[in-house]
Amino acid sequence: MKNYIKLPYFIFFAVIFLLFACNQANSSKEKETIIKGTTTIYVDETLTPIVEDQVAVFESNYEAKIKLISKSESETVNSLFNKKAAIAILSRNLTNKELSIFDQRKIIPKVTVFATDAIAFISNKNNKDTIVALKDVIKFMQGKQVASIKGLVFDNPNSSTVRYMNSLAGLNAIPEKGVFSFKTNDDVIKYVSENDGMIGVVGVNWLSQPMPAMQKFVDNVNTLGVIGDKSDKSYTPSQNNIAEGKYTLARDLYIINCQGYSGLGMGFASFVAGDIGQRIILKSGLLPVRIPSRNIKIRKQIENDKK
Questions:
Q1: Which of 26, 84, 90, 161 yields a CA-CA distance of 20 to 30 A from 135?
Q2: The whole model's pTM is what?
């Protein structure tokens, strides 16, 4: 006679539940392709406007749903490490130390450079001086007095703009004297538009593509021309000046895909780097990696066409 081991009912159902959950998870992953499914992307808050535009067009073309979460640069990078997200959009590439973490997970991040934007300095419209020297901003951050600068305003202590400027000034942390931080780029724009003598530090995309509610505040600030180290002339962060390398605070933008399989991360990166995505970037005022081609039709018989 065979002896059967009787499992308690709760263990039996627990096993069934786990098998069902695993099948659902595998089924969910199988359903995601490069143009179909759902995913989450963490994005550096200074880059949110241009990424929102890309996601809107991508979703309208494919059966895809992308949830965007805007955070500071530090939080965005950490989202990759703690597995909250597998796709992030940053204004810098991953460091060798950061790449080693994914190497341990047997994942090779796929990195796509898709545009060049810039950090912009802004001041209140009432300020007559519309030019600032980068060396003066650096001196102020280092605690030295600069007559033309009353204070600097950043979006977030952990943002990419703070890291960028700290790097130029040789600092490890944001200075406590004369330097202030809020939470978002919109907060900075609002504050500068209402206070004379302050210089705001923001991502240029927040100025070129403001939300309707922010337009009145953007209209009340000046985008300052910046005198760099290699020239005595000042340049604003225009698309042309960024393209010609004249504006000194330009930076490349990256899509970091750590999914480890062919999912929406790959599809979205290809879309942004492709013709439609690059046209969206060109229209936004940023500099695309590839200038989209234009077809020009030349007619030799204009007069005859009019008849």
A1: 90
A2: 0.83
